[in-house]
Amino acid sequence: MKQEKITRFIKPEDANRKWYIVDAKDQVLGRLASEIAKVIRGKNKPTFTPNFDTGDFVIVINASQVKVTGKRELLKTYSHHSGYPGGLKTKSFEELMAKKPEFIIESAVKGMLPKNRLGNKLIKKLKVYASETHPHTAQRPEPLNLMEK
Q1: Per-residue pLDDT tens for 97-147?
Q2: Which domain range does residue 39 map to?
Q3: How many domains is the chain built from?
């Protein structure tokens, strides 16, 4: 008798979630964001299920010291629209880095997650802080080495 292959799907309740901490100091923004998105989505685990949240939590510290390559520091802009005529608001990378450096990493990671309800749920597992202090010591986060590949 021929043996049938069975695909196993893990339920979100059965996912073993961990907390990781990443130091963004002197890291390149895009490479950092893509690795964080993989961990949040759960793609680094053998139990990855595309339609469930099986990923881990990620804490990013030193967001104010993240780097970009080339002329992006001068040319990159972030824009949003209020929905009203003439409501386009644009800020440069330098302005955002001075005011809200957390937003830069959050928007880069959010752009790499699915654009649906699952993506909205996953982005809440990212905690970004401009300095080295964070309130998540009770979760005992493990350091996540992204550059060992």
Answers
A1: 999 999 999 999 999 999 999 999 999 999 999 999 999 999 999 999 876
A2: 16-68+100-138
A3: 1
d(CA 7, CA 5): 7
Q: Say if residues 91 and 100 touch (Cβ distance below 8 Å).
A: no
Confirm if 27 and 146 have CB atoms less than 8 A apart.
Answer: yes
Q: Look at the block and give the residue holding tokens 């300095």.
A: 131
pTM of this structure = 0.90
Angle at 102 (CA atoms; ends 131, 118), nearest 5 degrees: 130
- 39 and 55 in contact (C-beta within 8 Å)? yes
Cα angle for residues 135, 136, 139 (degrees, 5° grid): 155
> DSSP secondary-structure letter at 139?
G
